[in-house]
Amino acid sequence: MTFYHQPMLGKVLMEKVLPINNTDGDVSPTDRKSWILTVIASFLIIILLAGIVGLLLPIDDDNTTSFVAFFALSIGSVFLAFRFPKMLSFRRITLKMAAISILAGAAINLIPGGSGSTHLAPYLLYGLSGRIIFIVFICFLLPVIEEIYFRGLLYPIISKYIGYKAAALITVTLFTLGHNPSGREVLLLGLSATLYTWLVHRTGSVISGILAHSAGNSAWLILAIAAQHS
Length: 230
Known about the structure:
Distance between the termini: 54 Å
Number of strands: 0
Number of helices: 9
C-alpha cells in the first residue's frame, strides 16, 4: 500500500502518472487511531507557539504575522516528522514536472484580486538589506515550510488513513483559512492550495509543491512591487 489512495488506472499507468514512494512499515505510531491525535497535537503546538510568540512580539503588520507563522509551522513540522518518520518525500522530479510546477504556480497568481499592496506597505519602508531578507523569506523560506507541513506531511498522513480526496479537502481548507483571507482571496488561495496539492500527489514529492508555491509568491511580489511604482 502507498500513502496515497490511487485511482484504478492500471499498474503501468499508475507507475507513470502517480509514481509514489511505498511507505509500508514506515509510519509511526502503528496504532491507526492515534494519527488523529497526532495531527490535532500538531495544530495545538502551532496555535500555542504562535500565541506565545505573538505575546512577546508586537504584531503590527502582516509580515510580522508571517514570521510568527513560519516559526510555529517549523516546530509543528518537526513534531509530525518525528511521529511519522520517512513520510516526507523529497524524491527527485522530472524537469518537465519542475517546469510545469513553476509555470502553473506563477500563472495562478496572475489572477486579479490579490492583496499585494497591503502586505507591501512595510516592505517599502525597509532598507536594501531588509528588502533582501523580505524577498528571501516570502519567495523561499515561507513557501518551503508551508509546503512541508501541509503537503509534505499533513496530506500524506491523512491520505494514508482516510483517502487522498478527503486529505486534499482538509489540507486545502486549512491552508486557505490559515491565511485569514477575505473576499476573492478565499478563491485565489483555495485554487493555489488545490494546485500545490495536485502537484505533490502527481509527483509524490513535496519539491513540486515548493517550486509552484515559490514561483507563485515570486510572481505576486513582482506584480505588487510593479503596482506600487506604476
